[in-house]
Amino acid sequence: MRRRKGLIFPTYAADDHLGLSKTLVSVHEEHLGSMRGELRDALVSCEELGHDYKLVRGLSALLEERCSFESRAVVSPVDARRAVFEEASGRVVDSEAERNRVLSTVAFRLGVSVINLDRSLYADLQAEQELVGFDRVTPLDLLNEYNFSLVLALLLYAVKLELSYRGRDKGILELAEKLGKCSVGGLHESQRVVVELGSVRGSGYRASQFEEIVSLLTSKRDWTLSAYVRYPVSAGKTYRLEVSHDGDGVMIKPHSRKETPLVRPAPRVTTAIKVKRDIVDVIDTAMKLGVTEAEVVEQLEGKGFLDLGGVMITQGKLLEVREAIESAPDMRFDTLRRLLRGLGCRNPVQLLEALGYTVEWNRDRGQSLVYRVSGMRKVGGASA
């Protein structure tokens, strides 16, 4: 987001991001029939192509809503694991051949094939769900839907909303009245609706109403949306967001995804999150364990981890990372990537950005240079 002279401007995805959008759509199409974890690995590799990882993840999140995932379990994964562990407990399983003998014995007992038993063992993990359907979207529409999401995200911080459009629409008026204190005016064929929204705190429940009202608005002629948003809330300052049919409005488009639920998650039991590393990728960990990102952050923060925005890290490891960067023989991305991966960081770009660095990408990605652009982020009252 950019703020200038009392106005706030979303960082829209533009035409120069069409290549990335096309790549992400293709990655999803190419992974039909693959496991969710394999799709996730392919998307992570896209984050190191020189694009803002936040944009990659935002676009990927919209594409995930168009995906259908199914568990490949033929028998209950819990029952399958229990049977295999009980069978293996009475013997030494130290080879692939011995493992296959255990699976064959259990499969015969359960009345399934060895292949189906093997597939069922961990099918309750999100990473093991199969991508069975993908509702395709054009690369340009994906960018426009992403921009639409940016506008909706800012509206959650709005304290006042002004809508104007040509014609009459009962649906817009009904939604406006649900959002807050509403007044209606206008001349001739034009309609003007003003909504006082009040405090932005606890406004998450209004998200669906905002999506519906903006979707209806953008279908009208000569429409304009103005919102006074308090973002960030802690700043206590209000900025004006302006979007219109002949301005930034040409870059936004309501979501066209299917209305029916597309993700069929496997049942899971919430357990304590245990990690063996002191640098943790939040999204990757959440997907592997089948929990939400918020659950990962909440549990790890209670175990001495700091949240750098998608990366959780211990204070000791953070000092080690800082020393490694400062003592690096050069600031080439390839050099720093090797150093950070040696310290256990799987996504060096994300960690570098969290620590106030940026990468100036060259055609030869490994020779790209890393620069310090800001101080390290404040985390938990201390400088990270």
What does it look like?
- This protein is α+β, with helices and mostly antiparallel strands.
- Among the domains are: 77-123; 141-251; 279-383, no CATH class.
- Helices cover 40% and strands 19% of the residues.
- The strands form six sheets. The chain has a five-stranded antiparallel sheet, covered by helices on one side. It has a three-stranded antiparallel sheet with strand order 10-12-11, sandwiched between helices.
- Mean pLDDT is 81; it is low at 259-271 and 376-384.
Question: What is the structure about, briefly put?
Answer:
The chain has 14 helices and 16 strands. With 384 residues, the chain is of the alpha+beta class. Among the domains are: 77-123; 141-251; 279-383, no CATH class.
Look at the helices and sheets and give the structural class: alpha+beta
Record field, number of beta strands: 16
* DSSP helix fraction: 40-55%
Mean pLDDT: 81
What kind of oligomer do you see? single chain
Q: Roughly how many Å apart are the termini?
A: 22 Å
Shape: globular
Note the run of SSEs as H and E.
EEHHHEHHHEHEHEEHEEEHHEEHHHEEEE
Q: What does the largest sheet look like?
A: 5 strands, antiparallel
Number of DSSP helices?
A: 14
- Which residues sit in consecutive blocks of at least 5 with pLDDT less than 50? 259-271, 376-384
Radius of gyration: 25 Å
Q: DSSP strand (E) fraction?
A: 15-25%
**Largest beta sheet: what is the strand line-up?**
6-7-5-8-9
